[in-house]
Amino acid sequence: MEISSEGLRALRQIAESGSFTAAAARLGYTQSAISRQAAALERSAGAALFERRPDGVRLTPAGLVLLRHACTILDSVAAAERDLSGTAPRTELVRLGMFLSAGAVLLPAALGHLAQASPEVTVETTEGTTPRLIRALRAGSIDLAVLTSRPPHRPSDGESPRLHMETVEDTELVVAAPAAGVFAGRTSVHVDELVDADWIATASSRSEPLLGVWPGLPGRPHIAHSARDWLTKLRLVAGGFGVTTVPSGMSSVLPPGVALLHVDGVPPEVRRVLVARLPGHPTPAVTAVTRAIASGT
After folding, report:
1. Cα–Cα distance between 204 and 227 in angstroms, integer?
2. Residues 258/226, Cβ–Cβ less than 8 Å
3. How far apart are CA 260 and CA 279, in angstroms?
4. Cis omega before residue 215 (within 30°)?
């Protein structure tokens, strides 16, 4: 089987991105070039590696097997390049992915704890939705991920081998509303009052969740503004331009003019925060970062 390092990089990026088009954009290729790379990989492997689906591309069992080897090979090549160039790191690097609101609440405390307990470990962070972070873990682009799940808290993906997951905490989902708006002075709101609200949400695709709208809200929500950055969303709320959902743990980082409301008339929406990694014995650096995240909650 003859497979180039470029082919292995394409495989890993397709696995992480979940589509040929997104992988092509990240690697600087055309979509047709990535498709040709994928076809060449399958011919060389003698097996179907990719499952084309309406919501994107997933790796087949054979693709996942090749991906595990690809990650090992590409990491070894990168280490060899560092050794030959004399740029081997003096510290142990952990690549950490976090869901979109975790950075504001969990990251500063975790990094502070890590600096005290394990100063030899450095962390490189990236943000993403839980589905994207799981793909990045599978692709070997990150070493550790802080994910979120909703009841009944089933495994976040069905691939094999299963990811190793540790629960960090459970937190309630609430609504962030303008402190001086129609909900002024209140600590709760009935779900029926949210049906006609203007929502500030993160744009979604068929493969990613819509973040910022109350789950299961009757009817079709009106998205007044779309923003990915949490500070932007909360500033828009403070300005009276709509409402959004946030974990209750974000109360300590809210800008002035924002109030948090519990939602009545429906069961509480509990979100579980998890730390996930690939199965197997973790490195001391990964263990140190995992402990720092747990200690920071």
Report:
1. 10
2. no
3. 38
4. no
In 3D space, the residue among 272, 204, 197 whose CA is nearest the CA of residue 240 turns out to be: 197
d(CA 26, CA 93): 22
Beta bridge partners of 178: 258
Helices (H), the chain: 5-17, 20-27, 31-45, 61-85, 102-105, 107-117, 130-139, 230-238, 284-295
Which residue reads 């924002």 in tokens?
Answer: 258
Nearest to 188 by CA among 265, 251, 242: 265
Q: What predicted TM-score, i.e. pTM, was given to this entire model?
A: 0.71
The answer for residues whose C-beta is within 8 angstroms of residue 101's C-beta and 6 or more apart is: 230, 246, 247, 250
- Return d(Cα 253, Cα 280) in angstroms, integer: 36
- pLDDT tens digits for range 14-73: 988 888 988 888 888 888 899 998 998 998 888 999 988 887 888 888 988 888 888 888
* pLDDT, tens digit (0-9, with 9 covering 90-100), for 245-264: 998 888 888 999 999 999 99
